[in-house]
TrEMBL record, chain A:
Subcellular location: Cell membrane
Membrane-traversing stretches: 31-48, 60-78, 85-102, 108-129, 136-155, 175-198, 229-248, 283-300, 312-329
Keywords from the named record: Cell membrane, Membrane, Transmembrane, Transmembrane helix
PANTHER family associated with the record: ABC TRANSPORTER PERMEASE PROTEIN YPHD-RELATED-RELATED, INNER MEMBRANE ABC TRANSPORTER PERMEASE PROTEIN YJFF
Topology of the protein relative to the lipid bilayer: Multi-pass membrane protein
Pfam families, A to Z: BPD_transp_2
Protein name: ABC transporter permease
Gene source species: Actinoallomurus oryzae
InterPro entries the UniProt entry points to: ABC_transp_permease
UniProt key word Transferase: no
Domain of life (superkingdom): Bacteria
Automatic annotation (TrEMBL), chain B:
Family matches, as CDD domains: TM_PBP1_transp_AraH_like (cd06579)
Chief location of this protein within or outside the cell: membrane
Keyword Cell membrane found: yes
InterPro entries: ABC_transp_permease (IPR001851)
Protein's name according to its UniProt entry: ABC transporter permease
Segments traversing the membrane: 24-42, 54-73, 93-116, 128-148, 168-188, 217-236, 248-267, 274-293, 299-316
Keyword Transmembrane helix: yes
Mode of membrane association: Multi-pass membrane protein
Subcellular location per the Swiss-Prot or TrEMBL entry: Cell membrane
Annotated keywords: Cell membrane, Membrane, Transmembrane, Transmembrane helix
């Protein structure tokens, strides 16, 4: 069947590439990050004795899990064609709020950050979807606003609230089963839920439709405003949750965390094959993107005498390579 | 965006008000703040205070000029802070050969980053935000690798003079900022390049179809942004009396974007407001200085800045210029 299709395509549209090639491009776009990840892990396992140990892999998993949670929300936002620059500040805000609220118990330490960060996402979402301001600008203001809020809670960053070791939330952040921290399992569960939400529900289809063409989606009767508000609320909630768990793991609400995190998160999502133009992307790609950044960082640490600045160089170069390939691929696909 | 089709009369007036706010709001806000400060801040008009404020804002103004050009083409340049770091890292390496080679090397670093950004945007067709994100991440890494991750003190007196000497009583960084503002304004208003830049921002496809050298112009715009950021990095390094690639220019991209947007340049491109951009940078500096002088903390300053940004884009949107 494929061959007959190729033949007709060749007759009617000589300029178009064979379907096999196109499908290969599509595969690279969607699973390129995963393939490179497997390759890197294989190389790392051969080259460094200490790389493939359970402790080290568990370490990669736990350090990546917080970035991954934030990246999950960002994936939804980017697929709608938006962007959320506020996540780094909201992440830090979540951590500080959790450490602040732990005096009223662990439940409060979990709920307060979620409520505040969710509300933060709601305000941003309303400004973007209802008032129709540009997402880039609204969330840029959000970045400053959340950081300001955080500083005002923490006495201009001079007070670092601590989470006592006995607290339930500290045990959630620090505990582990089979050498893998609880936050990793939670992240996995969230990603499964996220994948189902994106691929198998009406809401997910709306997210894709809005990213593909907002006007067309509106005309088809997709609840554009509601869906867009929802993705920014999700992004705020996930960033707040990640910040909370990170604070629980560190036993304190560190105020300076999360600066520049938004760009790492965007990089991970883009490396995972989600297009910044919206309308295309996947949750599984984001997992691969986040892990890829984590593995690169870990491998550079393994090399030892290399300074950690090389990590930024490699990540930047990698990002550049990915976007060049992606742009090329999507252009080839558009030429069909 | 879509609700402009049937505008009732009352909304037209509001639209005109918002349009006025977009164009002149930033100047009005500066005037108001200056008056308030004269009333409540002791020694606000002292020469010393004015000098300090202007020297502090000079690098932001210079970077914002480049950012305004990029945003005029419907792009954005996130790498400016990393360019400043790279310049800071390169200067001490070549200081042994003299000040001129050192500064030239620093500026070339900015040009190189601009070339990479511009090529990605113009020739490969990558979205500006991702293209410049790569060097935002990588640029500072390169700077740290070049500098060995260390802060280096600078003792060369000629270079230090760049940051601290004055011309006719005006600090040199401020002179440089003023000169560059005039140059950029002339480029935007009086040259073919400026016309093309605005045209491309307004409608890239139409510009391509009408035969404009879109790619060349875009490349040049990003090179200019890199170069201007490098100038700012040089001045800031001279002012600091040290090369500090790990923290110089952090968050500069956000300050610059804020200045441009507050100054009335729409993010959708097609319009460059050079004086507005300078005013935007001054306004943010003024807000910060006012709040800090009156012991209102940095947190409040940041939140106020957020509100100003939102107000600026709201005015821009309401003006129907999208």
């Amino acid at each position: 069947m494929t061959e007959s299709m190729t033949a007709t395509a060749a007759v009617t549209e000589p300029a178009a590439g064979p379907t096999g090639r196109e499908r290969a491009f599509g595969l690279i776009q969607r699973h390129g990050a995963a393939a490179v990840l497997v390759l890197l892990v294989a190389i790392g396992s051969f080259a460094f004795d200490r790389f493939p140990t359970g402790a080290n892999l568990g370490n990669i998993a736990i350090t990546s899990s917080f970035l991954a949670m934030v990246a999950l929300g960002m994936t939804f936002v980017i697929i709608t064609g938006g962007i959320d620059l506020s996540v780094g500040s909201v992440f830090a805000l979540g951590g500080v709020l959790a450490a602040y609220a732990v005096r009223w118990g662990s439940l409060a330490a979990l709920l307060l950050p979620l409520v505040v960060c969710g509300a933060f996402g709601l305000v941003q979402g309303l400004l973007i979807a209802r008032v129709r301001l540009a997402p880039f600008i609204v969330t840029l203001a959000g970045l400053l606003g959340a950081r300001g809020l955080l500083l005002s809670i923490s006495g201009e960053g001079s007070t670092t609230y601590l989470i006592p070791h006995g607290a339930l939330i500290a045990r959630v952040g620090q505990g582990s089963v089979f050498g893998i921290g609880y936050p990793v399992y939670l992240t996995l569960a969230l990603f499964v839920a996220g994948a189902v939400l994106l691929q198998r529900t009406r809401f997910g289809q709306c997210v894709y439709a809005i990213g593909g063409s907002e006007d067309a989606a509106e005309l088809m009767g997709v609840p554009v405003t509601r869906t867009k508000v929802a993705v920014y609320v999700m992004s705020g909630l996930l960033a707040g949750l990640a910040g909370t768990l990170n604070a629980a793991r560190l036993s304190s609400g560190v105020t300076i965390l999360g600066t520049g995190m938004e760009l790492d998160v965007i990089a991970a999502v883009v490396i995972g094959g989600t297009l910044l133009t919206g309308g295309a992307g996947s949750v599984s790609g984001t997992v691969a993107g986040v892990l890829l950044l984590g593995v690169i960082q870990n491998l550079i640490n393994q090399i030892g005498d290399l300074s950690s600045s090389y990590q930024q160089v490699v990540s930047g170069a990698f990002l550049a390579a990915v976007v060049v390939v992606q742009t090329y691929l999507s252009r080839v696909q558009r030429l069909r | 965006m879509t609700d402009t089709a049937a505008v009732p009369v009352s909304r037209l007036d509001r639209g005109r008000l918002l349009a006025w706010l977009q164009d002149y709001g930033v100047y009005a806000a500066i005037a108001a703040l200056v008056l308030v400060n004269i009333a409540i801040t002791p020694r606000f008009l002292s020469l010393e205070n004015l000098r300090t404020q202007l020297v502090q804002v000079a690098p932001v103004v210079i970077v914002s000029l480049g950012m305004a050009l990029v945003i005029g083409t419907e792009g954005v340049d996130l790498s400016v802070g990393s360019v400043m770091a790279l310049t800071a890292a390169l200067i001490p390496l070549y200081l042994g050969y003299g000040v001129v080679p050192a500064v030239v090397a620093g500026l070339l670093g900015g040009v190189a980053v601009g070339l990479v950004n511009g090529s990605l945007v113009a020739f490969v067709g990558v979205q500006p935000i991702v293209a410049t994100l790569a060097l935002f991440v990588g640029g500072r890494g390169i700077a740290l690798v070049v500098a060995g991750g260390q802060l280096k003190d600078i003792h060369d007196q000629t270079l230090l003079d760049l940051g601290s000497s004055s011309m006719l009583g005006v600090p040199l960084p401020v002179v440089v900022a003023v000169v560059l503002t005039v140059v950029v304004m002339a480029v935007v208003r009086r040259t073919t390049f400026g016309r093309r830049l605005v045209a491309i921002g307004g409608n890239r496809t139409a510009s391509e179809l009408s035969g404009l050298p879109v790619r060349r112009v875009l490349l040049l715009v990003y090179v200019m942004s890199g170069l201007l950021a490098a100038v700012a990095g040089t001045l800031a390094t001279a002012r600091l009396q040290a090369s500090d690639p790990s923290s110089l220019g952090l968050l500069m991209e956000l300050s610059a974007i804020t200045a441009v947007v507050v100054g009335g340049t729409p993010l959708t491109g097609g319009r460059v407001r050079v004086l507005g951009t300078v005013a935007g940078a001054l306004l943010i500096q003024l807000v910060r200085a006012t709040l800090i002088k009156h012991d209102l903390a940095d947190s409040v300053a940041q939140m106020v800045q957020a509100v100003i940004i939102l107000a600026a884009v709201y005015a821009a949107r309401g003006a129907g210029r999208r």
